[in-house]
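My current task is to audit a protein record that another person submitted. What it holds is a sequence and that sequence's fold in token form. Thanks in advance; the entry in question is below.
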Amino acid sequence: MGNFDGKVAVVTGGALGIGGATCRRLAADGASVVIADIADDAAEANRQRITEAGGVAIAVHTDVGVSADVKAMIQRAVDEYGRLDILVQNAFGVSTEYPGMQGSAVSVEEAAWDRGMAVLTKALYLGAKYAVPEMTKTGDGGSIINIASVHSFLMIKNNLIYEAGKSAVVGMTRQMAIDFGPMGVRVNAICPGWIVTESGREMIEKKPEFYDYAVTQYPIGRAGDPDDIASAIAFLCSEDAGFITGHPLVVDGGLSIQLQDAFGQDQARYGQTHPDLKLEYS
């Protein structure tokens, strides 16, 4: 506790899920937090949860695909708290608004591609564009965490936008680390496996066999919790990780270390038992 006393953190997509847990973790460790999200009610609920626990936070409506919103988000943090030390770029949410997002290069909708790339990649560029100059003013440098995925390295069929976007996150992270390291700003990425967020828990309650099947893919024997990712983020932002930059940290319970052909043969019986189950991407 207290690792981030006096520090200021902005977390995009900070209302729920990984972002929500990250806001709570950083606030519990002493940071003043800006909860940036388009889900105003959920962001306000998370703010109240943080303040009731003794933390400091504000909620700011932000569409990370819109340049003016991102600029205003960073400026609000500086206006409110006087500095910026941490930026966690987590926001992602286009599948419901753009149902044509999933598919191959032949079938995805162009509007979905543009929106997906705006949130998955352009948003990270915009965040860094406006955050880094403020971080360099503190004299202490700063830390940027970009949320990638195991899908940055492992592809699934007909998921072009997400796979391309999350792959790009790793490349952007490495490039930013090179560009901003001399300024004292470290840039790393987190690559989560399946993390059971609020919506995931609702799905599991309706279909518990889905979870029972899904976790057979994880050597650790369970899916992830948002707090698992929040802990990894807190580490990478801390002084303990002061010599780490440009690194894509995989936090997936061992999902991605298995030889898939052997694992698939071993799991064939699960497909026969539950042929209707389809695993969602992280």
